[in-house]
Amino acid sequence: MSITRRTGRLAAAAVVAALGVTALAGCGSSDEGASGSGGSKGPGSKTVTLVSHDSFNASDAVLKEFTRRTGYTVKVLKSGDAGVALNQEILTKGSPRGDVFFGVDNTLLSRALDSGLFTPYEAKGLDRAAAGTRLDPEHRVTPVDTGDICVNYDKKYFADKKLDPPRTFDDLAKPAYKNLLVTENAATSSPGLGFLLGTVGVYGEKGYQDYWKKLKANGVKVVDGWEQAYNEEFSGSAGGRKAKADRPLVVSYASSPPVEVLYAKPQPAEAPTGVATGTCFRQIEFAGLLKGAKNEAGGKALLDFLISKEFQEDMPLNMFVNPVVGDAELPELFTKFGATVDKPTTVAPDLIAKNREQWVQSWSSLVVK
Question: Which residues pair with 100 in a beta bridge?
Fold first, then answer.
């Protein structure tokens, strides 16, 4: 199954494009054509190569701080969507293209671990990471960030209609919200898969199909990916307003409202979109030391840095995700405009691994075909 990676940070890129402005943050050295260990020449090399999906982003300042501390320079090898990037590493297992892989999340974690991609390493400071993010007791992967897939709503639409926006999965199936929701295909989209998993977590393996039957009867619209759903179908986004979109509910991220504020000119006093916090599924992203890495020492140093306070505080406005360590502070933009999700839905990685394909196939038969 090919999963397209569309996260809050891609939401930022899409909003930037829709508003016709330029993103400011860089992501260090990047080389799409690198081969072997992505430029890491061996144990004595001062280059450490991070293989990632296309959404990795970090400020130049924080990458320079890593170099100042360790003497290593980060080289970023972006490799497409998360599923594509992971599959490439599986195909080159034992002779990796880099030293560290970043971007596998809890929906695909079992695939990475079962493939034997990583060398165990307990990163320094791992005890500062929230216990719920430390899913691998063998330390083959290190948690780096979290994000919540949630239904977003167009505030203006619901205010004009004098209708309360939905808050829960149950609400979405009510007649008041008929023909209002657009979601992504669970077989081709990461947020689409996360939303499906959220319904499994809430209604169980037996009840999620009945729930989707209700959603289908209530006029849910399914499109291939996040970009189409958010920027072409959702009336609350900058892109959707330009496209004259007519769906005021969309499956996106809890971090999408701050993005709408950050890149708007002028910035509004209130985000134009809100989050239905009772519809959220928690994603956790990990990084791991690739087995066979040529610069293992540099890779370990990079893993340590990825959970440092400096990097963790750099992530929110560069990748629009949340830190995993407790001592990292969120920027005011997040605390003022973002949604706090106190009780996100989760599904155990081993349960996902066992049933993911079956759940997606059943969902496709019910909703798409």
Answer: 50, 289
**Helix residue ranges, H only, 161-271:** 169-172, 190-217, 226-228, 238-242, 256-262
Q: What is the pLDDT of residue 41?
A: 58
Is the C-alpha dihedral spanning 196, 200, 206, 208 positive or negative?
negative
Report in angstroms the alpha-carbon separations of 103 from 7, 79, 353, 361.
Answer: 11, 10, 17, 24
Contacts of 154 (CB under 8 A, 6+ apart): 234, 235, 236, 248, 249, 272, 273
**DSSP annotation of 225:** S
What does DSSP say about strands 47-52 and 100-105: parallel, antiparallel, or unpaired?
A: parallel
SS3 357: helix
Kindly state the DSSP code that residue 269 receives in the 8-state scheme.
Answer: S
pLDDT of res. 43: 62
Mean pLDDT value across residues 24-50: 55
The residue with tokens 């890495």 is 293
Residues 6+ apart with CB under 8 A from 342: 277
In whole numbers, what is the pLDDT of the chain averaged over residues?
88
Q: How far apart are CA 338 and CA 216, in angstroms?
A: 29
pLDDT in tens, 62-89: 999 999 999 999 999 998 777 778 888 9
Dihedral over Cα of 62, 74, 5, 247: its sign: positive
Tens of pLDDT, residues 227-258: 899 999 999 999 999 999 999 999 999 999 99
Query: Other CB atoms closer than 10 Å to residue 103's CB: what's the count?
Result: 28
Is the alpha carbon torsion for 255, 260, 261, 262 positive or negative?
positive
Q: How far is CA 322 from CA 124, 148, 319, in A?
A: 19, 9, 9
Which is nearest to 155 in space by CA: 263, 261, 8? Answer: 261
Give the pLDDT confidence score for residue 84 in this predicted structure.
Answer: 79
Contact between 58 and 318 (Cβ < 8 Å): yes
Q: Which strand (E) or helix (H) includes residue 58? A: none
Residue 150's nearest CA partner among 354, 4, 296, 8 is 8
pLDDT the model gives residue 44? 67
Separation CA 165–CA 254 (nearest Å): 15
